[in-house]
Each structure stands twice: as structure tokens, then as C-alpha cells.
Amino acid sequence: MTTRTFSGPIPFQGIVRVPGDKSISHRALMIAALGEQPCTIKGLSNGDDVVRTRQAVESLGAQVEIAESGEVTVTGGVSGTRSPIDLGNSGTGIRLMAGLVASFDFTTTLDGDASIRQRPMDRIIAPLSEMGASITGSGDSGSLAPLTIEGRPLRGIEYILPVASAQVKGAVLLAALRAEGPTTVHETVPTRAHTEEMLAAAGVSLERGDRSVTVWPGKVDPPDIDVPGDPSQAAFWLVGACLAPSSRLVVQNVYLGPARGGFVEILQRMGAEMIVDPESGNIEARSSELKGARVASHELPGCIDEVPILAVAAAAAEGTTVFEGIGELRIKETDRVAAIAEMLVVLGARCQIDGDTLEITGVGRAEALGSGTVDSRGDHRMAMAAAIAGSVGGGSMTVEGFEATHTSYPSFARDLDASRGWTP
Ligand code: S3P
Questions:
Q1: Does 165 sit in the ligand 1 pocket, CB within 6 Å?
Q2: How far, in Å, from the CA of 423 to the mean position of ligand 1?
Q3: Which of 44, 103, 130, 266 is most buried by its number of CB atoms within 10 A?
Q4: How far apart are CA 77 and CA 41, in angstroms?
Q5: Is residue 305 among the annotated active site residues?
Q6: What is the mean pLDDT of residues 90-95?
Q7: Is the CB of 166 within 6 Å of ligand 1?
Q8: Residue 338 pLDDT level (bands cut at 50, 70, 90)
Q9: pLDDT (tens digit, 9 = 90+) per residue, 233-245?
Q10: Are the C-beta atoms of 238 and 229 separated by less than 8 Å?
Q11: Nearest-CA neighbor of 349 among 326, 390, 377, 318?
């Protein structure tokens, strides 16, 4: 286990480029695997989660070449599997992959690490089974990984998402590509739209309504793609710049599509000085005086992965920040509600949890944040949130299990060292 200590405050200044968006990277590899022509992917995320998906599509029969520049060329082809496929820590990887393989005429076992084996898979088993898929899960409930999927012909369905989840929507839409008849997914709260955006770009017949998407089965012709920067990673730097003194930082080329930029709006509501350039995808943030704000449950899907770092912002802010509808956070890479509560104790902020509402009363300014030790619990976003808290506060923060950052942002420590410095 790697332990690192981050001390502050040191200004966050300059220009940062974050890894390619993780959600887009998974989908780029999977959609490329379903195509017939080679397609090139630039800027693919180099995190462990996406490496697992790359290995998974290779094991299904796609050919993957990686140039020295990092550019990846995928020649599609799904022909069989050297099962089991290990998706590591990746909920997106395992859930989307279940939809992708469900209609192919072979048996696949999808598995992952100890965290994945505890995360609910019934949310994809239900709609995919309704389409005719045969999925056998593990555990007493039969709804945990490893999942054994025996390929079957599928039929299109009309499905109302019972949870706001882009992973579930994506799994159903990928399965729909080879089903008989159209499939429509309805959502009550919009979630990230990468699957439908990328399938449309790949020439799939698709209709997008206000809160629904219909996919007709057909061929996939994936275009070459340049993956934009990951807004969820940008959030760490931008909160750092808002909280640290004398800071002015630009994160370049960030994806600004639907349901991903909620954290910017929330930080601006808290008083953050941030400017978004929609043309370039550049986001600038400066040292700001933050105050508490209310985040309603319908906003949560648009900032779901940013709550750990928003909690750091709330811990430093003056007043109380309320996050409503946080239930989904309990079933992420770890129980993030518990993990955030533990981190807030160390930071000296007051934290109250009432059902699915989290209230954080901040210490008023970043310099007053407390010092101590936080366990990442193997969760990349908790490790990075704690590292930023240590870097903006007046004391220091020791992060245990810092290696979890490799899940999505292997160069996070190096980038942070380059701009700020850490003490081992
Ligand atoms: C993702 C969807 C979200 C998000 C995850 C990535 C995706 O999960 O938390 O990091 O790429 O579809 P849910 O679908 O569980 O909300």
C-alpha cells in the first residue's frame, strides 16, 4: 500500500491537461470492437479501468495496436472469449460489457476485484434478461459478479430506468444493437449521454427525445475519435485552484457535454470564480471565497463522481452545503458516504447524514482545514480528493492507499508534484 503526505497551502497555477475522459474511453473501445473497419482513438484514458476494457475487447477478438504516441488503433471483431474477463475495479467496464456480449453466440464470464464483487449487478441483469439474455450472477442474491453470460438472441424492449444510471442505459443500448426490433430507454433524470452520442456518430439508427433514446439494431461504423479531457479529473484541479491562495489555473480541452459539468455550476453557486470556454473546453478557476449551497437530488447524476471533491470544497466553505439524494454514492468503488464522512472528521468540518441527505458545515477557509490521515479505501476519487484537501489546507494530509489513483489518473501524483510538491 502506498502512503503519501500532502502539505499546503501552495498556489495552483498554470495550465493542466487531464487524461482522456474515462466514460468516453470505455465506450470508444467497445464500439470500435463492434465495428468492422479499423478506427483510431487518440487521447484514450491510461487508467487501469480503461486498460482492463482494452484487454477485454482484445480477449473478445478485436485487434488492438498501440503506437508510441499512445494512439490506439482497434480493428473490430467479436468472435469468442478466453474467459473469464477481469474488469478490475470498473463498474462501467463490467456493466457495459455485459450488454455488449449478451447477444453473441458464446459464453462469457465477467469478473472484477473485491469491490466490483460487492456492487449491484441486478440493475443490468433485469433489463438484459427482459431482452432475452441469460445471465447468472453469484452471491446469495445471484446478482453479484462474477457474471456468467450465455449468448442468446435478444429482442428490443421499452425500459424505464429505475435508477439514474448511464451504465445501465449504456448496457441496454449496446445490447440493442443486435436485438430484434427497436429498444427505447426512458430516464426520469438525464444521465451522461456518451453511449447515444457515440452510437449516433458511428452511424447507428437512433432517435433522442427529451428523456429517452431509441436504438434500432444495425451495423456500427465507428469513426476515429479524439477523446477530450475528463471533467471528473479536471474537478480536482479546479477545486484546488478555488481553495488555494493566489491561484489561477486553466484545465484545457475538457468534455463539456450533458450531465458532466454539474460540478462547475455548483462551485459557481458556492461563489467560485470560474470561466468556461465552450469552444475550447478550457475551464479557468481562481482563488475564491466559497460559501455553502444546496444541491438538489435531480442534480446528483450530473455531479455523481465529483461529490468527494465537492465535499472538500464544502469543508473549506463558510456555512452549510447540502447534498440531497446521495444514495447511489453508497454503492460506488467504496461506500463514498461513509468515506466522505471519515474525511470530513479529519478536515474538521461538521458532517450530518440524514437518510439520503448529506450536510457539511465548513470551517470557513481552506487554511483552517484540519490535518491527519485518510484511508482511500481503494477508491481513486477519495484518494485524489484527500490529496487536494492536504494541498490547500494549512496543515498536511496523509493519504493511505494512494495507489488507487491508478484506476483513473496514473500521473496524478506526478502532476501534483510538478505544480505543488509533496513530502513522503
Ligand atoms: C458512468 C456512469 C456513472 C459514473 C461512473 C461512470 C458511465 O455511474 O458514476 O463513474 O461511464 O456510464 P452510474 O451509471 O452507476 O451512475
A1: yes
A2: 33
A3: 44
A4: 16
A5: yes
A6: 98
A7: yes
A8: very high
A9: 999 999 999 999 9
A10: no
A11: 318
Q: Residue 391 is inside which H or E element, if any?
A: helix 380-392
Taking every pair of Cα atoms in the chain, the longest distance, rounded to a whole number of angstroms, is 60
What whole-number distance in Å separates Cα of residue 177 and Cα of residue 99?
A: 10
Question: With 70 as the cut, is the pLDDT of residue 421 above it?
Answer: no
Q: Are residues 406 and 52 in contact, defined by beta-carbon separation less than 8 angstroms?
A: no
Spacing, Cα 335 to ligand 1 middle (Å):
15
Q: Report residue 406's pLDDT band, with 50, 70 and 90 as the boundaries.
A: very high
- C-beta of residue 393 within 8 angstroms of C-beta of residue 9: yes
Helix (H) or strand (E) run with residue 359 in it: strand 357-361
* Atom 5 of ligand 1: nearest residue by CA position: 92
Q: How far apart are CA 424 and CA 421, in angstroms?
A: 10
Confidence check: pLDDT of 424 > 60:
no
**Average pLDDT of the residues in 204-227:** 98
User: Within a 10 A sphere around the Cβ of 127, how many other Cβ atoms?
Assistant: 22
Number of residues that make up the chain = 424
Rounded distance between C-alpha atoms, residue 361 and residue 318, angstroms = 7
Is residue 161 lining ligand 1, measured as CB closer than 6 Å? no
Give the ligand 1 atom nearest the CA of 165.
14
Q: What is the DSSP letter of 96?
A: H
Options 21, 305, 379, 415, the catalytic residue: 305
Nearest CA to ligand 1 atom 15: 165
